[in-house]
UniProtKB/TrEMBL annotation:
It comes from Amycolatopsis samaneae. Residues 24-403 form the Beta-lactamase-related domain. Keywords: Hydrolase. Its EC number is 3.-.-.-. InterPro entries: Beta-lactam-related, Beta-lactam/transpept-like, Diverse_Enzym_Activities. This is Serine hydrolase domain-containing protein. One of its GO terms (molecular function) is hydrolase activity.
Length: 410
């Protein structure tokens, strides 16, 4: 099985101190022992070899089911880089260009309006000064938003339309996109960065341009060729799916979130390219290796190297970081020192970010505290899996970076 996960190299052979790597395990074991996480899995790879793999705790506390190498995780926004790769495959085929207005395929975006002032019930809007283009969707600069933000009147309009943490029951992706297009943009396209449903719109664009539903495109063009046999919008084995938890507001200890128990048990009405996938650590490891190897893995090439290099470049104007160009809202990345590429964050300035990671690192995470990064300079990939909403509860990602890089000795 191609997605199997196991340590296949002595850490010292790839420049790691094995004892220092064990600090990862000791640190995150405390989260489980203190009742702050149900369980977790971490994988560290260098030069294409897995140097460290560890798991601790339970995927389902109530069932006393342990975290295992083949546990299925709801990766939420770690779906976004997959959708972005799909879109860039279509760019490489000459079917669409980064500068193309998306209204050529999604006519509902032909005349977008932009919020100027007023309440969510009585907004004053103006026409967009330029069309929403493909690169706006890929970089979250289209003017779209999320309903679960509580920062802007347009956020409230999304919630009023039924888009909070999810989409309205029974509404498919095409209908969701039409409803989003009917709402005002939060700002003029290209003028700011705001984490949003842009990648869901991108997923619909992939469907229209390719002529295939998003799940079929993913399966035929990405997951099948890469051997990602356990990844999709539906879990092949529901017994392996990890349960989702939230922190108790008083004690901070985990509490099961039963509203999510049904997710991934059957094909959803809305195939969310922004957050709908379920995957294993082994499967997603293959996806990170594809990015590390600039579009090719085990003889299968999905993207050209120059395309991956372009995706891994900061596309924010003037090499700005998210703190300068973005709205001060929750995202799956730190803001200081990080720019944004075509589908994931790009580390622009390690000093400004106060991190040991390398400039050019690409990364993203999911709402339930999953995360990955790819460091070309160090030929390194790292991923972490757990199921705790929201991902901003604990500094998991920043601590994991410290613990990985301090173990590098070459």
């Amino acid at each position: 099985m191609t997605g199997e996960l196991k340590v296949d190299v002595d850490p010292a052979e790839v420049g790691f101190d094995a004892e220092r790597l064990k600090r990862i395990d000791r640190h995150f074991a405390r989260y489980v022992d203190n009742g702050q996480l149900p369980g977790w899995l971490a994988v560290v790879s260098r030069h294409g070899r897995i140097a460290h793999l560890s798991a601790y705790g339970e995927r389902d506390v109530e069932a006393s089911a342990p975290v295992e190498a083949d546990t299925l995780w709801r990766v939420f926004s770690m779906t976004k880089p997959v959708t972005s790769v799909a879109a860039m495959m279509l760019v490489e085929e000459g079917l669409i260009e980064l500068t193309d207005p998306i209204s050529a395929w999604l006519p509902e975006f032909a005349e977008p309006r932009v919020y100027v002032k007023g309440s969510s019930l009585r907004p004053l809007t103006e026409p967009a000064t330029e069309p929403i283009r493909l690169w706006h969707l890929l970089t979250h600069t289209a003017g779209l938003t999320y309903g679960f933000f509580h920062e802007h009147p347009v956020d409230a309009m999304y919630r009023e339309a039924g888009f909070d943490w999810s989409t309205p029951p029974g509404v498919d992706l095409a209908d969701c996109v039409r409803q989003w297009a009917a709402l005002p943009l939060a700002f003029q396209p290209g003028s700011e960065w705001n984490y949003s449903v842009a990648t869901d719109v991108l997923g619909r664009l992939v469907e229209v341009v390719s002529g295939k539903p998003l799940d079929e495109f993913f399966a035929e063009r990405i997951f099948g060729p890469l051997g990602m046999t356990d990844t999709g919008f539906v879990a092949g084995d529901a017994d392996r799916v990890a349960a989702i938890y939230t922190p108790h507001p008083g004690t901070g200890r985990i509490v099961r979130a039963p509203a999510f128990d049904g997710w991934a048990r059957s094909r959803p009405a809305c195939l969310s390219g922004g957050g709908g996938l379920v995957s294993t650590a082994g499967d997603y490891h293959r996806f990170t290796q594809l990015l590390l190897r600039r579009g090719e893995l085990d003889g299968v090439r999905l993207l050209g190297p120059r395309t991956v290099d372009l995706m891994a470049s900061n596309h924010l104007p003037g090499h700005a970081d998210l703190e300068e160009f973005g709205r001060p809202v929750f995202s799956e990345s730190p803001m200081h020192g990080h720019g944004f590429g075509l589908g994931f964050s790009v580390l622009e300035d390690p000093v400004k970010a106060k991190t040991l990671a390398s400039a050019g690192e690409i990364a993203w995470g999911g709402a339930a505290s999953t995360a990955f990064w790819v460091d070309q300079d160090e030929d390194l990939t790292v991923a972490f899996y757990t199921q705790l909403l929201p991902s901003s509860t604990y500094p998991i990602r920043t601590r994991l970076r410290q613990l990985v890089y301090q173990a590098l000795t070459d």
